[in-house]
Amino acid sequence: MHADASPGLPGGLPVSAAAASAAASAPRRSGGSAEPVLARLQSSGVLSESWGTSLWLGTQLARPALPASPTGFESLDAELPGGGWPVAGMTELMLREPGCGEIQLLAPGLRERTRQKAGPPRELVWISPPYLPYAPALQALGLPLAHFTWLRPRTEADAAWAAEQVLRSGSCGAVLWWSREAGTDMLRRLHLAAQEGSTPLFALRPWARQQQSSPSPLRLACWLEQRSELCVHVFKRRGPTMAEPLRLALPAPGLLKPLPAEGPQLLPAAADPFPFKEPADVVAGLASAVAAA
């Protein structure tokens, strides 16, 4: 039996005397299940409804406090607590190599995050991607170019600072943040900022960082098995160990183009009909040209 905070109530409050008494009087079985104890506590009225999102069995997926956002892949939804991506806080994707299909994996969920019942679509913010975002492929995946913001800070520290400000503002639909060197303290800071701003943060990080301590409650390893088949292993979640990796069929590849070593400067016209002069061109300058193509 697991609890998110401590052996006490949610938020670290101590267990009441009634709860302790009910638990103590429950039958104990060596190597047995925790269900009888929970059933006794629930029937006695000790457990309040607020325990539903913080107390869970290790053999079951936890129920998040907020509704999850579907990933667009039913088999993946079935393996995630709440049935989808968390709508606030950090989710880590550990990539064997950048551009292995992670954007195709995230695209269905990102589309949903931009939509609002009333008002214009919310912004999607990408921070320090290792490749040049390719406008036609983004549009083919249904991502709104007019509400796409691309930031390229000069240093890792600047990128983390920018991510924190965006997350705390709570003004965008989702943030994708690429980082190779972030430490545990920075991960914790951004996870808290994402929770505070009620915004999903997808941290795309190197494969070798899987052993690093992380506050993220959801961590996935991703690698490309075949040209259009992405393997996904959820190696950290609030629930049981995943039996084997999923194999997900992806939409057409070719989302990303290599970024020139000198930075985001004008590309030759023959190489790309939609050259990027500045990151802002992704948001405004080329949106109408791509839509008309």
Characteristics:
Rossmann fold; eight-stranded mixed sheet; disordered N terminus
Describe the structure.
This protein has 2 domains: about 55 residues, no CATH class; about 220 residues, Rossmann fold. By secondary structure, the protein is of the alpha/beta class. It is built from 9 helices and 12 strands. The N and C termini lie far apart (about 55 Å). Helices cover about 25% and strands about 20% of the residues. Helix 6 packs parallel to helix 7. An 8-stranded mixed β-sheet has the order 6-4-7-8-3-9-10-11, with helices on both faces.
In brief:
By secondary structure, the chain is an alpha/beta fold. The chain contains nine helices and twelve strands.
CATH fold assignment of the largest domain: Rossmann fold
Shape: globular
Across the major sheet, the strand order is 6-4-7-8-3-9-10-11
What structural category arises from helix and sheet content? alpha/beta
Question: Helix and strand layout, with pairings?
Answer:
Elements: E1 2-3, H1 17-25, H2 35-43, E2 55-56, H3 74-77, E3 89-95, H4 102-114, E4 123-127, E5 131-133, H5 135-140, E6 148-151, H6 156-169, E7 172-178, H7 184-196, E8 200-206, E9 218-226, E10 229-236, E11 246-249, E12 256-258, H8 280-285, H9 287-292
